[in-house]
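In the previous chapter we treated chains in isolation. Here, by contrast, the input contains two separate entities that must be folded as one system, with a combined length of 938 residues.
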Amino acid sequence: MTKKSYEVRQSEKISHDIEGYLKEQEHKSFLRFITCGSVDDGKSTLIGRLLYDSKLIFEDQLAALENDSKKVGTQGGDIDFALLVDGLAAEREQGITIDVAYRFFSTDKRKFIVADTPGHEQYTRNMATGASYADVAVILIDARKGILTQTRRHSYIVDLLGIRHAVVAINKMDLVDYSEDIFNSIEKDYRKFAENLNFSSITCVPMSALKGDNIMESSTSMNWYHGPSLMSLLEEMDVAENKAEQPFSMPVQWVNRPDLDFRGFSGTVASGTIRAGDEIIALPSAKTSKVKSIATYDGNLDFASADQAVTLTLEDEIDISRGDVISEIGHRPEVTDQFQAHVIWMDNSPLLPGRPYLIKTANKTISGKVNELKYKVNVNSLEHEAGKTLELNEVGVCNFSLDDDIVFEAYVKNSALGAFVMIDKISNRTVAAGMIDFGLRRATNIHWQAVDVDKSARATQKHQKPVVLWFTGLSASGKSTIANLVEKKLFLRGNHTYLLDGDNVRHGLNKDLGFVDVDRVENIRRVGEVAKLMVDAGLIVMTAFISPFRAERRMVRDMMGDHEFIEIFVDTPLELCEQRDPKGLYKKARSGEIKNFTGFDSPYEAPEQADIHLFTANMSAEEAADAVVAKIEAQYLA
Amino acid sequence: MTTLTHLQRLEAESIHIIREVAATCDNPVMLYSIGKDSSVMLHLAMKAFYPSKLPFPVMHVDTTWKFREMIAFREKFVAENNLDLIVHINQDGIDMGMGPFSHGSAVHTDVMKTQGLKQALDKYGFDAAFGGARRDEEKSRAKERIFSFRSAQHRWDPKNQRPELWNIYNNRIQKGESMRVFPLSNWTELDIWQYIHLENIPIVPLYFAKKRPVVERDGMLIMVDDDRMPLLDGEVPEMKMVRFRTLGCYPLTGAVESTALTLTDIIQEMLLTKTSERQGRAIDKDAHASMEQKKQEGYF
């Protein structure tokens, strides 16, 4: 058997010529692949089988595996290979894979890292995690079931992430009597579906991971199949990307400055090759210089190519910092603060257009938001669908705008400069993966109109400091009543004021918006923009909006200058609000007549550190208004 | 253009990870266990920042039961490479007279290692700690992210890990929370040895075979490293040619009989041996999914 002779060959080599063996290992080629497909298609079993057959399972592990197989295995006392890779306690209990696991093995010809990824739809994000590192996708299909939604979803996602080589492993052939017809019909279906994808190669292999058919060696049960076994396919596959021949680019990760004499820019080369003496341009500043040296611990290099982590020193003292990109002069990446991108949503809370998120690219983290969800992609039909949000595991195409410029290239052209993740500003969770399609030009065409009479001139004329008094709280908590009293008191003092009231704004400016989360975010964004203009006009602005989400209140705070935003929490217990119920809204919410009512079926996120906290259960509206005026008097009204 | 070898790729990936932490974390630390993986990790860190010195300290959580040769090696290595070393010892444990013989391996490891580590992280307010763990070591490690989030209580939640795509790492945390960062995640044991060989990285002599005084206990060969080790009735230390595949507290680390005197001997022996690496450590045998549980509780 080949298996044994492989092992014997290796042992002999190791025993007699260890130096030669190590040299051989050092220069072995290397492949990263991912296994994906629907739950129960046999992914973990396949990897367990590959590890077992390539002798990567040691005796002590094998003993433990046999023991576990008897205890919790699903193969009736036979070895359950899936137990080898399902490492988390919850996975072993439930018999499913939850998170991506990385496994390592090698054969005569190649070294492999395989990402074993979950099949359940709810864990699609973990599958995308594994796919972002892989060169090849092995997509498993259960021969009894054919192509399922998860097969299409996973194929689409690995394609979107830029994997160009698909191996379609049609598994469990032993359960369909090794039928050639079934194999042919699944292959035909898959190729038809994949016409809309961009794979440069698709290879279909009939196999049984459980029985070992067409895994390491050609199966004797399927003489009608003349193609390679899965392993020989993976060993021979050419996935070279010629990244080193593309134009040079390197995101600057860290500025290396041990003393006044040395100033280096450290980073991992994203594409191309750089030599000492090459001319470069730093972006976004567009300053140019020449490479003086490529400094490493092992001495200066003559050249460095894609994927190498290096430190460049330059001939000229130009200002470069983390977030910048050094590139070849003739092929510079673009600079923009607006772009279109494909997004895979990975969080339980949906994407809210208008809400600011952190955008992290190769070397820069900035605030930005989705201005528009252009469409969602139906992973089954690949058709475009309209939508207002993206839910967990949905894919969409969005227009983004950022608070600052980034240097980028289209993901399909240079994945290192086109990839980003989105991070929720409050929970810090990674909520999405993004791939930039192209920059949007309008960013460069709209400029601020500078005016001669400015905010401080207008404010001085009014003898006050402009500020937004942002009242937040539940419906019927007393926001409008207190804000109204505050405005009266300020007006009588001779201050210049304006009150933006939730209900009033919804009759005009925001009458196109409803009460679902996306609309609530947009409602607050518009009010924030209006308040900002009024502050610019020198006014003291009161706003009375439920504004239930921390993120949007923070967004408005971030729009204003320092000390121009005062958050006032009108803290009234829900029961009290419901008792008051001046507009009868609570009654309607109770009866189900109104949906998405804050405090009931829509959340209210109380401020963690309000600038002014009004406990209205213990004070009258008049007292509350006085408290607000007293608090701002010294700083703003003088 | 030459294509990078497998090891060159791993090296570049690790350097990228180490630099990312230095560039984006406020107060990182590199944990140093004195073992071979730690030595490789430190070597990579020195490469990452050359010609600067390491922009963060190195910390050893000392249980006071390490092999004497480990401590001697540590002192020499730190001096030669101009590193800022923090040694932390859990004083509460010392006050309790903690030790593997008096309290058993589980309690000793928990107090001196796990609690000691948490204590040190809290004391210095580190927001990121590098560890030398590899994904090929153990099943729950195979599932762990490179940037692995820990709650303010230092807990790992395996069911709720952040997606981690490309080489873009989300290290955002709230005050009190922290990151464990594993730059060697994608290295295998063979890769580590091969890299030590190619780069001439110094390692503790205990990895090489030598005549050492050992007793056999519960199927493990335990080296009598100092006189704190109580000998049982009938136990007489024997001089045997042994070496260690992993290093830790001497009473908990089993030796293997070996004649491997050089690095290539070690590699050869490792490749021909059919026992996986962690079998030499008593701690993993305790319970099922034991490593996952320990990690959830804050063990590295």
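The two ends of chain A are 93 Å apart (CA to CA). The domain at 243-328 of chain A is CATH 2.40.30.10 (Elongation Factor Tu (Ef-tu); domain 3). Compare these points with the single-chain example from earlier in the chapter.
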